[in-house]
Design brief:
eight-stranded antiparallel β-barrel; three-stranded antiparallel sheet
Length: 206
């Protein structure tokens, strides 16, 4: 009971301790990245003057869905908020389609302690690891999309803005499991789209 009381006291007071530190977080995720693609009308042009067409080609649509890998590094943690960079790449997909992307964003934690906290008190190190962590956030970035239409396999460079939410469960002092869902809008040179991602993986305090 005494130990529990001490831990609760540290948990409440930890953000105010000047010589305490929050751990950065590295996450290895695997999951599904799906983009519903619509080609812009202005991007459909006829480049071969020798080919005669009876009617103007219309913009097409496509859906890209690929098993993907995602690496995320979370830093500048203050207990309630952090920033992150992440990279996403396809692992398996049909017809060679997929999404490559890099993002920068933030996480806003809904619980009192969003990362592992280490405090040095008169030479004694106290470590507090939150069992559950819940958060929401937003991210922006650029990416490279490979998609297929009825006539060809095409590619596009895009910018996207997304919102996400997730949670993690600690399985030890240094690692745990994490799940995240993200929804965003992509705007490219030749396409626009809606992106949905679901990832699950392992998270490590470093």
């Amino acid at each position: 009971m005494l130990r529990l009381t001490v831990l609760i006291s540290f948990l409440i007071a930890a953000p105010s301790f000047a010589n305490g530190t929050y751990s950065n977080v590295l996450t290895y995720n695997f999951g599904m990245a799906t983009v519903s693609v619509a080609e812009n009308e202005s991007s459909i042009t006829q480049t071969d003057d020798s080919v005669q067409v009876d009617e103007e080609e219309s913009a097409g649509g496509s859906a890209v869905s690929a098993m993907s890998f995602q690496l995320t590094y979370e830093f500048l943690h203050d207990g309630r908020m952090s920033y992150f960079v992440k990279a996403t790449a396809p692992l398996m997909s049909g017809a060679g389609t997929g999404v490559f992307a890099g993002h920068f964003g933030f996480n806003k934690y809904l619980n009192d302690l969003g990362s592992k906290y280490t405090y040095d008190l008169n030479g004694s190190k106290v470590v507090i690891v939150p069992t559950f962590r819940y958060y929401w956030g937003a991210a922006g970035g650029i990416g490279y999309l490979i998609y297929s239409t009825e006539s060809a396999t095409k590619s596009d460079v895009f910018f996207d803005l997304s919102f996400h939410g997730g949670g993690s469960f600690a399985l030890g002092d240094n690692w745990g499991l994490k799940g995240e869902l993200a929804v965003g809008r992509t705007t490219g040179v030749a396409t626009t789209g809606i992106k949905i991602e679901f990832f699950f993986g392992a998270t490590f305090f470093i």
